[in-house]
Amino acid sequence: MEPAITVKNLSKTFRLPQERRGTLRERLMKLHYRNDRKDRRTLDNISFEIQRGEFFGIIGRNGSGKSTLLKILAGIYKPDKGGEIQIHGRIAPMLELGVGFNLELTGRENVYLNATILGLTKKEIHARYEDIVRFAELENFMELQVKHYSSGMAVKLAFAVAAQIDAPIMLLDEVLAVGDFVFQEKCFAYFEECKRQGKTIILVTHNPQTMERFADRAMLIHQSHISVMGDPYQVLERYHAIG
Amino acid sequence: MRMDHRSSQDLLRDQVAYRWRLFVALTWVNFKLRYYGSYLGYFWSLLKPLGLFGVLYIVFTVILKQSTPHFGVVLLLGIILWDFFVAGTMAGMNGLIGNYQMIRKVSLPRIVLVAASVSSAFIGCIFNLLIFFLFAVLDGVALTPKSLWFIPLIIALYILVLGIGLILSIIVVKVRDTLSLWEVATQLGFWMTPIVYRMSLVPEKWRFCIFFNPMSGIIEYSRYLLIGVGGLTKIGYCYVISLSSLILLIGIAVFKWKEGEMVEDL
Q1: What is d(CA B171, CA B114) in angstroms, rounded to the nearest whole number?
Q2: What is the signed CA dihedral for B257, B260, B262, B265, rounded to 10 degrees?
Q3: Which of A8, B112, B200, B218: CA 20 to 30 A from B66?
Q4: Cβ distance B211 to B236 under 8 Å?
Q5: Does residue B19 sit in helix, strand or coil?
């Protein structure tokens, strides 16, 4: 059976101009000499495969390139020429919560907007609305504007919507599991349910405990390369060694 | 680069359906946000064009003694259409930079963001036009069958604004001043378009230049079709519609060409 995701020779280079030339005045003033661009290679020739139904962990320090990798898989950034990505099946990227959340709107309005952005139809949202509210534990607050919510409440609502997205491949950032301890456990229970359903899950984490608890295989990204890939325990050892 | 196991026809249909749902949801949200927060909401937004109308009306009728029949509604229509031109292009221009949070977090058809911004301003324009029709009826203006030709004109206005909005939304990412520059340009444009005056008042030699501006045709002809003041030529009508369509096509092309690069600059 073909793997869920195949990545070959993936690289991503950001061209960072040395000076900011955001306004017309700056551009006209500096027109006479070239703005040297410094290339920053955030990902350097990455190749890996993820099998169906696998729970695959990605760990790495800040700035290692793992967020960039996720954004490329999610379709937000375009990779450099020469890289190849094959994704077999619908992929649900859940990298940040509450995309499109607007503080002026009510909880209910934000649910509809966020769910629409994530791909649900109006009918689907109607059907799942009660479940979302219950998961978020916000039964009495849905008609309140989100600007009056505590940050914990907003995050719970956003996670509750995201948890409704159903796709064979899920791209998760562990940052999603926030809130108080009880709610965190709910989030982890959700991860476990996804795993039980045989979904292919890619989870980015900073936390070794999460890796130990969930991952079948893992990968450590360090300074734009894959440092080690395979058994989660080996990956974790390397991760500690680097730190 | 990506493969899926459903047929490409299904995929296309899903894509189009998603874009439509997103477009409707964002337009509605943008519209609500424009007028949210105050009980009078929509009526406050009316204040600007009506205020401008009030001042200009007094200046031109009482002080300058304008003599065009139905001058009040003639002026009001021009102001409403021009107001959408400015509000719509500004909203479109903000389509990317105003939504950068969304763009950086999820893969979204960005053209929908710009289109939704322009469309929410357009809904406002439609409501303003209803007010206009109310005033027109009160002023004794009678609609005729040829008034239906206004519909292609208002569509042309929408696509003109959308086309310009798409282009501006890209330029503004690289040159942030464009926001202010466009404001100034529209201030000048207001006087270079026959809003407070009629085409017939423009000296012959300048008429062609003024007419080059598609808004001139849209406003002049709308006045003719809805109020019966002024004139219309078939060639001019086709020119306005074709130019607006062309600008839309250019806008879409420029947008599609450059949108990929913009994510990193936002």
Answers
A1: 13
A2: -140
A3: B218
A4: yes
A5: helix
Contact A95 B29 (CB under 8 A): no
CA angle in degrees (0–180, nearest 5) for A167-A168-A174: 75
**Beta carbons of B165 and B95 less than 8 angstroms apart:** yes
pLDDT tens-digit series, residues B158-217: 999 999 999 999 999 988 889 999 999 999 999 999 888 888 888 888 888 888 899 999
Neighbours of B202 (CB within 10 A): 16
B256 inside 8 A of chain A by CB: no
Strand order in the sheet with A55-59: A91-94, A169-173, A200-205, A55-59, A217-222, A225-230
Q: Other C-beta atoms within 10 Å of A33: how many?
A: 6
Structure tokens at A133: 């509210």
Partner-chain contact A88 B3, CB within 8 Å: yes
With 0.80 as the threshold, say if the pTM is over it.
yes
CB contact under 8 A, A117 and B22: yes
pLDDT for the residue B48: 74
CA–CA gap between residue B120 and residue B162 (Å, rounded): 12
Residues 6+ away with beta carbon under 8 Å from A226: A46, A47, A48, A219, A220
- A95·B105 Cβ contact <8 A: yes
Q: Which of A39, A70, A34, A50 is nearest to A221 (CA)?
A: A70
Report residue B230: phi and psi, to 5°.
95, -155
A79 three-state secondary structure:
coil
**Which chain B residue has its CA at the smallest distance from A77's CA?**
B263
Contact flag A87-B2 (C-beta cutoff 8 Å): yes
Identify residue B178 by its one-letter amino acid code: T
Q: At what angle do helices B110-138 and B234-265 cross, to 10 degrees?
A: 140
The residues with which A37 forms a beta bridge, in sequence order, are A17
Between CA B158 and CA B155 the distance in angstroms is 5
Across the interface, whether the CB atoms of A27 and B32 are under 8 A apart is answered: no
Could you tell me if A100 and A114 are in contact, meaning their C-beta atoms sit under 8 angstroms apart? yes
- Closest residue of chain B to A101, computed from CA coordinates: B102
Q: Which of B10, B19, B106 is most worth mutating to test chain A (most A CB atoms within 10 A of its CB)?
A: B106
ipTM of the complex: 0.82
A82 → chain B, closest CA residue: B1
A116 to B21: CB separation less than 8 angstroms, yes or no: yes
**B contact test, residue of A73, A102, A117 with most B CBs within 10 A:** A117
Q: Contact A227/A46 with Cβ under 8 angstroms?
A: no
Give the DSSP H or E segment for B115: helix B110-138
Task: Please tell me the predicted confidence (pLDDT) of residue A102.
Answer: 87
Give the three-state DSSP class for A200. Answer: strand
